[in-house]
Specification:
Distance between the termini: 47 Å
Strand order of the largest sheet: 14-13-12-11-7-10-9-8-15
Organism: Silicimonas algicola
Pfam families: GFO_IDH_MocA
Structural class: alpha/beta
Shape: globular
Bound molecules: NADP nicotinamide-adenine-dinucleotide phosphate
Radius of gyration: 20 Å
Number of strands: 15
Strand content: 25-35%
Number of helices: 9
InterPro entries: Gfo/Idh/MocA-like_OxRdtase_N, Gfo/Idh/MocA_oxidrdct_glycsds, NAD(P)-bd_dom_sf
CATH superfamily of the largest domain: Dihydrodipicolinate Reductase, domain 2
Number of domains: 2
CATH class of the largest domain: Alpha Beta
GO molecular function, one term: nucleotide binding
Largest sheet: 9 strands, mixed
Protein name: D-galactose 1-dehydrogenase
Helix content: 25-40%
CATH topology of the largest domain: Dihydrodipicolinate Reductase, domain 2
């Protein structure tokens, strides 16, 4: 089968860590161009301007956007208006309305828009959803703690408006939560810890309404030293299930199943899904994880904490 041509834009940490190696061994995609103001990809034509790449490479039918959410909209708009399919890194946008605008553009252009959630592709997300189905939930606890200096070294955009702060990783947890919980939940209470010199929270706690009255909470911390904690625990009338390491491990009443390192296999599965969506001419834009973040930002009580320095 011939591989479809794709361009990558925003060559930084996640493009280098995941997208480039994934595309290099993809059975579906051939990396045909890159767009980045400073980054480069060896072995393909490199551009610093999106419009120039789109004009020079009409054979590139799909563009995958890896830059942060705030600047991403203009790149997505340009690609969709040029009739290309677009794949968005998470979170899909800085605001609700801009993602809706992209959905409309994709519909008008007859192309595919895929808002990816890489954490949903973790090995045990689907098994966790299947296990929870039919069980009565009593308590559901999300604990998401990591060191921003490890995953976003020097990336000031995460603390700028639209950067989402601790919700940049926290939204990964929420993408799993919204994929595995059978019932809809919504935020009822939140606290946001704001470093006095920054615009976005470095830690947050959330409480949710659950239709059957289960206690649903989330604790997120981005100033955490030691090992990453990416854990979701569900206590039900039929036992306790823990998803650990971001969904790469599942424990049911003490019995553990594990699948490689965190992030393992997530990006190959995202690109395989994009190939299926393009084949079917179908978009996939689920904003439910981002909605919880935007709700928490609206309802959250701000607590000013010590300044953050890298
Ligand atoms: P990053 O390295 O800071 O940014 C990626 C690239 O985007 C930069 O190298 C830069 O390339 C371009 N860029 C940055 N600011 C820009 C601007 N204002 N206008 C245009 N281009 C800009 O960030 P990242 O860690 O790769 O994260 C990017 C996205 O991937 C985020 O949405 C993040 O949530 C998601 N993600 C990150 C990770 C992770 O581990 N870091 C994991 C999963 C998902 P040029 O300067 O060359 O244009």
């Amino acid at each position: 089968m011939t591989r479809r041509k794709i361009a990558l834009a925003g060559i930084g940490k996640i493009a280098t860590d995941q997208h480039i190696p994934t595309l290099a061994s993809s059975p579906d995609w051939e990396l045909a161009a890159a767009v980045s103001r400073h980054g480069r990809v060896e072995g393909v034509p490199n551009f610093t301007d999106m419009d120039e790449m789109l004009a020079a490479h009409p054979e590139v039918g799909t563009v995958s956007l890896c830059m942060p959410p705030v600047p991403r909209f203009a790149y997505a708009e340009a690609a969709l208006k040029a009739g290309r399919n677009v794949m968005l890194e998470k979170p899909p946008g800085a605001t609700l309305s801009e993602v809706h605008a992209l959905e409309n553009l994709a519909r008008e252009a007859g192309v595919v828009l895929y808002a990816t959630w890489h954490s949903r592709e973790a090995a045990f997300v689907a098994p966790a959803a299947a296990w929870l189905k039919g069980r009565r939930l009593k308590r559901f606890t999300v604990t998401w703690k990591e060191d921003v200096r490890k995953w976003h070294p020097g990336q000031d955009w995460v603390f700028e408006p639209g950067g989402m702060g601790v919700f940049d990783p926290g939204i990964n947890a929420l993408s799993i939560v919204t994929a595995i919980l059978p019932d809809p939940i919504h935020v009822t209470r939140a606290t946001l810890e704001m470093p006095e010199n920054r615009q976005t929270p470095i830690a947050a706690t959330l409480a949710f309404h659950h239709p059957q009255g289960a206690e649903v909470t989330a604790t997120m911390d981005w100033d955490h030293s030691g090992d990453d904690v990416w854990r979701i625990e569900a206590v039900t009338d039929g036992g306790t299930m823990t998803l650990d390491r971001g969904g790469a491990e599942m424990r049911i009443d003490g019995s553990v199943q594990s699948a490689g390192d965190g992030l393992h296999g997530e990006y190959p599965r995202l690109y395989a899904q994009m190939a299926r969506l393009v084949e079917d001419g179908r978009s996939d834009v689920d904003l439910s994880p981002a909605r919880h973040v935007w709700d928490a930002m609206t309802l959250g009580r701000r607590k000013i904490v010590a300044p953050f320095h890298w």
